[in-house]
Amino acid sequence: MESTPENEPKPQFLGKDTPLPSSPEEAQLDYVPNPRKGSLYLVRFAAPEFTSLCPVTSQPDFAHLVIDYAPGDTIVESKSLKLFLGSFRNHNGFHEDVTVGIGQRLAEEMQPRWLRIGGYWYPRGGIPIDVFWQTGAPPEGLWVPDQGVQPYRGRG
Known about the structure:
Elements: E1 31-33, E2 43-53, E3 60-70, E4 74-76, H1 78-86, H2 95-110, E5 114-121, E6 130-134
Antiparallel strand pairs: 1-4, 2-3, 3-5, 5-6
């Protein structure tokens, strides 16, 4: 594994007591050099207890998010991603806006070879809403496993 050169930025939250950002706009994501640059592989983050707020009622909405990406030159530092996702706890947004917005921000800033996000939202008003977004077709040869979240039946 390659070591990080001295002149590259160090993660700003790793190993520090860091408060939760008050909004997604204030949240800063850290990216570090891909330790396996040039290799085609998939990284998965699952956030089974994600929350945001309904933009109409301000009641909490709950989702199981699954983020898959094939890194390019950088990878997202996981603590900064956790803080970013946690910042949605006080954010009002429709399920579609929240899910796609997370995927688009990661794609724009990190520039992965490929990224997809699945937002599996728990029902409000009796209807679960699942939202999916990706940057395009996955690269040829990339193993893309199923996201593993079952259609709603009490989602266990």
